[in-house]
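Design request, tokens follow.
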């Protein structure tokens, strides 16, 4: 399927801008200060590429939205993570927009971990449930091995010989 109209990313003076405009919205684009003449341009994408490079992404996003054209400054995942991270609270951050991150200072891995919340698909008739970390790796090892019939002495020997473990190995995760 072909992109409708001028639905593209464009380079601006200070970053990238995403515009979602159909051919039917050319009249609106004409009303944006600096974009007069786009209707007559043979190559509309080339026209926009040249004109948009002269101002900031925020400038163009505001000017386009004032004419009811969908436009947004594009940002990277690092900026999104910085902007939309909150302490893990067992809920998904759907109130934060398209992205939300949960930060676990006491993650079972033994490290501070920030993960993206699970809600990329928003069902209309179902609840979105936050995924919580599983228990610490190895936390149940001794109970499981005891349940298999091994004695406390045998379990201690297996732990000492590193046949089984009760946590992450020293080299398993980067520090």
């Amino acid at each position: 399927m072909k992109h409708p109209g001028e639905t593209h990313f464009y380079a601006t003076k200070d970053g990238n801008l995403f515009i979602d405009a159909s051919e039917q919205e050319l009249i609106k684009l004409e009303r944006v200060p600096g974009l007069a003449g786009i209707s007559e341009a043979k190559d509309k994408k080339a026209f926009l590429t040249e004109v948009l490079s002269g101002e900031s992404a925020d400038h163009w996003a505001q000017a386009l939205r004032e004419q009811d054209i969908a436009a947004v400054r594009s940002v990277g995942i690092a900026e999104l993570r910085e902007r939309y991270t909150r302490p893990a609270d067992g809920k998904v951050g759907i109130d934060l927009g398209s992205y939300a991150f949960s930060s676990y200072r006491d993650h079972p891995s033994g490290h501070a971990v920030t993960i993206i919340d699970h809600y990329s698909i928003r069902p209309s008739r179902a609840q979105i449930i936050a995924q919580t970390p599983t228990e610490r790796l190895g936390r149940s090892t001794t109970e499981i091995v005891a349940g298999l019939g091994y004695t406390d002495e045998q379990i201690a020997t297996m732990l000492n010989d590193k046949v089984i473990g009760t946590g992450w190995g020293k080299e398993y995760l980067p520090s």
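Comment from the thread starter after seeing the answer: thanks! Strands lie at 8-11, 16-20, 70-74, 85-87, 101-104, 113-116.
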